[in-house]
Amino acid sequence: xxxxxxxxxxxxAEEQRHHGKALFFWVWxxxxxxxxxxxxxxxxxxxxxxxxxxxxxxxxxxxxLIIGYFMHLKYEVNRA
Length: 80
Known about the structure:
Elements: H1 3-18, H2 21-42, H3 48-70
Helix pairs in contact: 2-3
């Protein structure tokens, strides 16, 4: 790695260190709430297309949160 990449990686690591456990608990709470909404929707009598659209939307948001925060990709440095 050259000096620019090292500096970017160090900056990203420093930004990540400033976020304590509280941020991860907020994300976990959001994921838990979305899961509760998904479970609730499965017991509702609504049109399948409407329900599946909502469930797919929630699933995409949940996937983005998991990838971004728990897999730490939000703080990754673009090396391209």
